[in-house]
Amino acid sequence: MSTLYKVIVVGGGLAGLGAAYELSKDKRYQVTLLEQRDRIGGRIHALPIAGQMVDVGGFIVYPWYVEYHRILKELGLTNQLKKIPLQAIYYQIDQSGKYYTQRTIPFPKKDTARLALKLAVPVFQARDVAAPPLHSFDYMTGSEFFRDALNTKGPAGLYETYTNVVNQGYCYPSVDRFKMAFMAPFIRMSQFQGDVSDSFFVRSGNQQVPQALAAVITKAGNSIRTNVIVTGCTSTTAHTNQGDVSGDAIVFAQNVEPNVYQSILPDIKIKCGYTQYYSVIVELSGSVAVQGDTHWGAAFYLPDQTPLQIVSAVNLGMLYTPKLAHYLNLNIVVREAETHPQTADQLLPVLTTQLKKLFPDVTVRTLSQVVYWPMTMPIADEAFVGTVRARQGKLGHYFAGDWLGAPSMEAALMTGVRAAQQLIVDTTTTYQPIKSEPLYTRLNNGYTKLNKRLKNKITPVGGVRR
């Protein structure tokens, strides 16, 4: 390429930053990244609490996050990783109010054997978190799979209930909405390559990763523009609230917003929703204990059908520092988006009532931070994802984002890097000039090759080739 190849990256989360970062390594590309928020990082976000940066978005770095660990190493951030403390994680799995650890949950042995048999092949095949097989589970949701595997027609069994508790506690869709094709990589990786107890977090806040990526991108001469809302696209021109931005290719790395995606994929049905959550850091007074344990790490609660519900809590004093001993980070699912509170004052009465049931001896001092996530974890459809995968690179359009695979920081980053790598392959000539060699080297190599060919054609007496 004699001139710079202009690439527009839509979305400043990990997927978009990963794509822009990879392209920034090659001086033939000029990247313009467009982000609709006033900050980069997407679902990675940290806020200050009592002098400590605390993550209110994605923060768990699993040992099997290969791409994430690679990027951390390249950015010089591996020294910021800290092992997650091994405090107890508690789960509510029934209406008794009792808490269980993972080891004490009374999973039926027959159900365990049946599920192991049913999961063996499809989970073994789900080795790629960014591009898992789409048809291994016949388009079944988690609920459909569990009930089919265990031949259950009545209420949810213990495995289905436990999975639902974990899913919603981590902001994922409920098991009756989350497809097994996208759940399978987590099952494989967490079972065989490390779960939360083997994981890490970034001690001063995970926002350091997008900030470091952005610094590399801009230092290479590329630009990042915030507060830019993309409303649609024509060919490789993005229409925004600040005017049109044109390039030679576009990497779509934002959430799946129907208006934008329908403008570039007019012939397919856009099918990808999102969960909606609040992340709230609350300061409490009194004994913050779970079943008498004041040194607990996290708690996951049995989902119900209330419009707003606390589905998990993280004990920040145990995770970060003792000075946060009375602070909890709460994930609150929003089940009725049109009725969710708009301010912290409106949210406070709901939280106070629920916290009093979960922690009877505490009083709410303040809601230190409240973050509303209208689009948290993707609820993708296999047919839609398959169609988009097939369109990768066509008409100068490239796609990235964790909705293409198992929703995670790893899938987001990996799909962004892969989109950039494919773009580079698509736009780079395969011609490589022959390097000049000294005359004696060429003669020697030619003699060696000729000698080998002659030897292979000599057949001695007896007919045995030498």
Could you name the ranges where pLDDT drops below 50 across 5 or more consecutive residues? 430-444, 453-466
CATH hierarchy class name of the largest domain: Alpha Beta
Q: Per DSSP, what share of the residues sits in E-state strands of 2 or more residues?
A: 15-25%
In whole angstroms, how far apart are the ends? 50 Å
Number of strands: 20
Broad structural category: alpha/beta
Number of domains: 3
Q: Largest sheet, described in full?
A: 6 strands, mixed
Number of helix segments?
13
CATH superfamily of the largest domain: FAD/NAD(P)-binding domain
What is the overall silhouette? globular
Rg (C-alpha, Å): 26 Å
CATH topology of the largest domain: FAD/NAD(P)-binding domain
Reported CATH architecture of the largest domain: 3-Layer(bba) Sandwich
Protein architecture, described:
The chain is α/β, with parallel strands linked by helices. It folds into 3 domains: 5-81 and 201-272 and 380-426, FAD/NAD(P)-binding domain, CATH 3.50.50.60; 104-198; 277-373, Alpha-Beta Plaits (2-Layer Sandwich). The protein is 33% helix and 21% strand. The chain is built from 13 helices and 20 strands. The strands form 6 sheets. It has a 6-stranded mixed sheet with strand order 6-15-16-17-14-18. The longest helix has 19 residues, at 439-457. The two termini are 50 Å apart.
